[in-house]
Design goal:
Layout (H helix, E strand, L loop, with lengths): L1 H31 L4 H4 L9 H4 L1 E8 L15 E4 L4 E11 L2 E20 L3 E10 L7 E4 L6 E5 L8 E6 L2
Antiparallel strand pairs: 1-2, 1-8, 2-3, 3-4, 4-5, 5-6, 6-7, 7-8
C-alpha cells in the first residue's frame, strides 16, 4: 500500500512541475509580443526643447472606441500649449470602461516630464497637466525630432487603446 502511495506522490509531483513549467512558458511567450511595441519605437526618449513643444495639437485618431474620431460628433479636439506653461483644451473626450463619456474643455498648467519607460528602461518624455477638472491625462511625445506628436494611452497599454494628437501647422 505504501509503495502505491509513494508512486502516486511522485507522479503527482511530476505532473505539478510540468503544469507549472507549461504555465510559465505560456506566460513568457505571451509577454514576448507586447502590443505596446506598436508605439514604443515612436515614443520620444530624449527631452524635447521647450520651443519644440509649445503650439496647438489636434486629436487625429483614437482606438479606444471602434468609431475612431467620429466619436467627436463633428467637434474638433484641440490642445493649446503656451510658452508660459498654461494650456487650454477644447472638446477633450473622456472615457468610462472604454466607452465615450463626455467632452471637457478646461485650462490649467502643463510641464514636460518623464511619463514612462520603454525598451531597456529608456525614459519616455511627455506632458503632465495640472487642471481644474483633473481629467486631462498625461501624454507621451512621439517622434525623434520636432514636430512632435502626442499619445495618450487609456488603461492597459497591451490593449492598444490610445488617442493620437498631431501638431497643428
Amino acid at each position: 500500500m505504501s509503495c502505491v502511495r509513494v508512486t502516486f506522490m511522485r507522479e503527482l509531483g511530476r505532473f505539478c512541475c510540468i503544469t507549472i513549467a507549461m504555465c510559465m512558458l505560456g506566460f513568457l511567450v505571451g509577454c514576448q509580443h507586447n502590443s505596446w511595441d506598436r508605439y514604443a519605437d515612436s515614443l520620444t526618449t530624449t527631452r524635447p526643447k521647450q520651443e519644440d513643444i509649445v503650439g496647438s495639437y489636434l486629436l487625429t485618431q483614437q482606438t479606444i472606441a471602434t468609431n475612431g474620431v467620429a466619436v467627436l460628433q463633428g467637434r474638433q479636439c484641440q490642445l493649446d500649449l503656451q510658452t508660459d506653461g498654461s494650456f487650454q483644451v477644447a472638446n477633450y473626450p473622456t472615457w468610462t470602461n472604454s466607452q465615450f463619456a463626455s467632452f471637457i474643455s478646461t485650462t490649467g498648467h502643463w510641464y514636460c516630464d518623464k511619463v514612462g519607460a520603454v525598451h531597456d528602461n529608456q525614459s519616455v518624455w511627455g506632458i503632465r497637466f495640472d487642471d481644474v477638472s483633473n481629467k486631462v491625462d498625461s501624454l507621451s511625445f512621439t517622434g525623434k525630432a520636432a514636430p512632435y506628436g502626442l499619445l495618450m494611452t487609456y488603461g492597459d497599454p497591451d490593449e492598444n487603446a490610445v488617442m493620437i494628437f498631431a501638431r497643428k501647422k
